[in-house]
Amino acid sequence: MHLTHLECPRCGLEHPADKPQNLCGCGSPLLARYDLATVAATVTPEQFGLRPADLWRYRELLPVADPRFVTTLGEGWTPMWRAPAYGHEIGIADLIVKDEGLTPTGSFKARGAAVGVSRARELGVERIAMPTNGNAGAAWATYAARAGMGATIAMPLAAPTICRQECLAAGADLRLVDGLINDAGREIAELVAGSDGRIFDAGTLREPYRLEGKKTMGYEIVEQLGWQVPDVIVYPTGGGVGLIGIHKALHEMRELGWVEDRLPRLVAVQSTGCAPIVRAFAAGEARAIPWADAHTVAFGITVPAPLGDELILTALRDSAGTAIAVDDAEILTDLRDFAAREGLLLCPEGAACLTAARHLRAGGWIRPDERVVVLNTGAGIKYPGLV
After folding, report:
1. Which of the four CATH numbers 1.10.3720.10, 3.40.630.30, 1.10.530.10, 3.40.50.1100 does domain 80-107+209-382 have?
2. In the prediction, which pLDDT does 346 show?
3. CB within 8 A of 316, min separation 6: which ones?
């Protein structure tokens, strides 16, 4: 393992990586740092193709030292589908969908859970707790069960029913909350505070290793394109861990010398019913103001006050990207249109990315000759009744 330390992106303070860590004292999430010079001398991009087709192929850039603690269900290495019919319709000839719906728990959350649970297990954690909009809780409960760890999951009553069932099937202590994810977060914070250190808070960006699992999407996109970067990556943004992770992966690859200096423009997609990042980006702010009365059919991006707002906004501006909010009615229309034309049923969060790409192409922000990758972050069949 080439993990060296954890670093606070806000105040620059370094933290040891050999014990469980949550936020920096200044309140910022922590980022895992690696000895990239040694990684570059140890492995070349060509070697990854000889390894198993899962996210652990990038083990030199992941935080688990002892392979005995790796907790896996074969997550990662999801397909990249070209979408010529829909792409032609909206004016993007080179439109590609990375389909995270084919991960073990049916969403991209399995990546973060696999790496987060593996590292927590290695560091001696026996029970994790977290708030969730659904898919993350299902993934962490599943991987915790596989690792022999306990899990307490707090979930809004309105979350997808199948995610609730996944948590119960995995034996998690499931707590349903009449409210939004921030209300579930308060319940978990009280639980952790009263546990005398026996329960570890694994909420979004409150531990540094979920991000490391999510960043493997960035490595895969580039490897699957022959170690070439696309022009644009469009990402549904609630807590924003995937977008932050992809941005981190791209910078690691550039420092490793595996890609050229030109990096993709990142797009954060939100719903008009919950768009704190879009509002902050448009106003030129460094932080997002919590969104009042948040609601959207794309439940996974209903995050009124994302903890990683600074990191999301930094990733967008650093990549010359943008943030866009799309309407629920258009999300559902594009979900149905795409399924009819391409034969792939997206989750509503993935469909939101199509709506965003359509608007950005119509407005000229995306040019007709550009290669655009959109992330479908979950399986459409987990959302019955939307089509």
Report:
1. 3.40.50.1100
2. 97
3. 266, 267, 268, 277, 281, 322, 323
